[in-house]
Write a structure and sequence with these properties.
The protein contains four helices and no strands. The protein is mainly alpha-helical and 146 residues long. The chain has one domain (1-130). Helix 1 (4-30) packs antiparallel against helix 4 (101-130), helix 2 runs antiparallel to helix 3 and helix 3 packs antiparallel against helix 4 (101-130). It is elongated. The chain crosses the membrane at residues 9-30, 42-61, 73-94, 106-129. Keywords: Membrane, Transmembrane, Transmembrane helix.
Length: 146
């Protein structure tokens, strides 16, 4: 069983790896092919990934469940978008374009990756929700003596 601290650590790790992956994609794929439609399709999700990875870090650090829910919803939307792309690639493979198998397999792997990120974010959400709120300065705590 994974503990709540480990889920938080996995959320931080997921967010940082997500940021590094998106920066890698932007410098190796989007910037060299700026003139094609591929850059126009990939740029908004990449910017969304960067922003929402930062939101995940803030949400876990500041115990804000709404930020974690927002990240999780975005991951599900990305999975649905990639599923549509993989269906498109699969139709191209069926119609005889053999070179489309690599992009089709790549999109299926990305769907699995985003699914894992959504599961980690769900565990992080449960970890944040299960923690007691921190005491404010000057709060008085009463305990029974007997």
């Amino acid at each position: 069983m994974i503990t709540h601290k480990l889920y938080k650590l996995l959320c931080y790790l997921t967010a940082v790896l997500n940021i590094f992956l998106v920066i890698q994609i932007m410098f190796r794929v989007i910037i060299p092919v700026r003139s094609t439609g591929l850059a126009d399709i990939l740029f908004p999700p990449c910017m969304g990934n960067l922003g929402l990875a930062a939101i995940l870090i803030i949400g876990v650090a500041k115990r804000m469940p709404s930020f974690i829910k927002l990240f999780r919803i975005f991951m599900f939307i990305q999975m649905a978008f990639l599923l549509l792309i993989s269906v498109y690639f699969f139709r191209l493979v069926i119609h005889g374009q053999e070179e489309m198998r690599v992009p089709a397999n790549g999109t299926l792997m990305l769907i699995a990756l985003f699914g894992i990120e959504a599961l980690i974010a769900s565990g992080g959400l449960q970890a944040v929700l299960s923690e007691p709120p921190p005491f404010e300065e000057g709060a008085v705590v009463f305990q029974r003596l007997a």
